[in-house]
Amino acid sequence: RIGSRTNTRASHEEKVSEGDDGDDEDDDGDEEDEDDSSHLDMGVVVKFLPRIEELRLTYGVNDCGMNFAWSLFNFTPMDCNRLSAAVERCSTLRVLHLERSHVDDQLVRKLLSRIQKHPTLKELSLSHNKIG
């Protein structure tokens, strides 16, 4: 277990939590004005999980200390781009849980547009988000 802001749990009960790798651009080439060190780039994680079948994610913070900002608790457009790119690379992923992450309608549409043709993904859980 590595300390930082985003908790991730893979199907074989591995827990990973770490800061970002410092990419400044999302996959669409648009620069984001947000602090991109707030959440983990899942692409870094999935490289080490080549046979992952289930992934449970909650975007939030463990300890923000004096640097509190409500934006730390949200699933951002950059998070969406990075997660969808990571999911596209997971050829064995069957189940994705993205719960309690303040995902809104716009980000759901963006995520679904990227992962809808995934060859093995059969279940997507978006419970307890800001959809609708």
Give a short account of the largest sheet.
Answer: 5 strands, mixed
- Helical content (DSSP H or I, runs of 4+): 10-25%
What's the β-strand tally?
5
Radius of gyration: 14 Å
Number of helices: 3
Task: Give the mean pLDDT.
Answer: 76
Which SSEs are present, and which pair or pack?
Layout: E1 7-10, E2 15-16, H1 42-46, E3 54-58, H2 77-89, E4 95-98, H3 105-115, E5 123-125
Parallel strand pairs: 3-4, 4-5
Antiparallel strand pairs: 1-2, 1-3
Helix pairs in contact: 2-3
Account of the 3D structure:
The chain has three helices and five strands, in the order E-E-H-E-H-E-H-E. The protein has helices at residues 42-46, 77-89, 105-115; strands spanning 7-10, 15-16, 54-58, 95-98, 123-125. The chain has a five-stranded mixed sheet with strand order 2-1-3-4-5, with no helix packed on it. Helix 2 (77-89) packs parallel to helix 3.
